[in-house]
Design goal:
eight-stranded parallel beta barrel; 25% strand
Length: 336
């Protein structure tokens, strides 16, 4: 690969996003709706292009964390299918009510503030805390809050949701949370609207818990779900090559010492770009398709690789830090 205008870059495969969404849909019960979670800039992949790709591939709607993120994507899907999963601050209530986005609520104070600000009917998703402990109302409060919304002229209960704490690692806790959520739903009946609980891990391991809709985040990008296609590759240019003698050290703190003459390639990427310092002397990158161990401390804008066993390496070659078979999960393990 030749050098790009930047010495470090990410490549995003939007076809992989579409493929992954289709594969996930095929794993779920027929008719399950999918919210594509595109918060935090679509997990760093680019909110606008990923949202468009997911919707084109059949996503029912989009899910974000904040009102600002929703406004960035306004117009890509019907407003009531733009789910703002995080809290709306009191000073944002009037603005939020005017958007028509689906807002997540967890308390009577939020419901009453939105009722005062809305001209209606504003769609709300009531979040129940079944064990995650961040957002959500106690299960015992759900019926009262749902009734409060139902009796409002300006609000509409569009859905009821919860969030699993350990769907990929603790099936007993997940089943307990789901059982508690089902009890809440039984008390609400048809008034619950769209029922959703599953994140990526739950959709993979417990598709029977899909209910009406699921919220797919990390799996959309090809992570933590077998058989999906990684949507991102991260690469950096090799900007310097040299051979150091036996006994020479490389990097801050002299944490790596050559046991023989070693070809050292410096890549233009470092901890400012997301290659954590925990990667120092751990794992490898790919150069010309072959593993090049990462040696020495990772600097702010440079990382050093042992390319001794790779013939033909040149300044301007790309070193791949994610991609080409090197997965984000491997990199995460090396990064602690």
């Amino acid at each position: 690969m030749g050098l790009t205008p930047s010495q470090r870059w990410a490549e995003v495969d939007l076809n992989a996003v579409g493929h992954n969404l289709g594969a996930i849909a095929g794993h779920l019960p027929p008719g399950t709706r999918i919210f594509a979670v595109v918060k935090a800039g679509a997990y760093g992949h680019g909110a606008q292009p990923v949202a468009r790709a997911a919707l084109q591939a059949g996503a029912f709607g989009l899910a974000v964390a904040t009102l600002d993120e929703a406004q960035e994507l306004a117009g890509l899907c019907p407003p009531d299918r733009m789910l703002v999963m995080g809290a709306v601050l009191p000073e944002q209530m009037a603005e939020a009510a005017g958007t028509g986005f689906a807002l997540t609520v967890s308390s009577r104070q939020q419901v009453e503030a939105l009722e005062a600000a809305a001209t209606g009917p504003l769609p709300l998703h009531l979040k129940i805390d079944t064990g995650m402990g961040r957002f959500g109302c106690p299960p015992a409060d759900a019926a009262g809050l749902a009734a409060r919304i139902a009796h409002s002229r300006h609000l509409r209960l569009a859905g009821v949701m919860t969030h699993f704490a350990s769907a990929g690692t603790d099936p007993a806790l997940t089943r307990a949370q789901f059982g508690l959520f089902r009890e809440v739903l039984a008390g609400l009946g048809a008034a619950a609207g769209l029922r959703h609980a599953c994140n990526s891990a739950a959709a993979l391991h417990h598709p029977e818990m899909a209910l009406d809709a699921v919220r797919i985040g990390i799996a959309l990008y090809g992570c933590e779900w077998p058989g999906l296609r990684p949507a991102m590759a991260v690469r950096a240019a090799i900007t310097h090559l040299k051979t150091v003698p036996n006994g020479a050290t490389v990097g801050y703190g002299a944490t790596w010492r050559a046991s023989q003459a070693t070809q050292v390639a410096t890549a233009a990427i470092g901890y400012a770009d997301g290659v954590f310092r925990a990667r120092s002397n751990r794992g490898w990158a790919l150069v010309r398709g072959r593993p090049a161990p990462l040696i020495g401390q990772v600097s702010m804008d440079a990382a050093t690789l042992d390319t001794s066993g790779i013939p033909g390496v040149q300044v301007g070659d790309a070193a791949t830090f994610i991609g080409g078979g090197l997965t984000a999960e491997q990199v995460a393990e090396w990064s602690g």
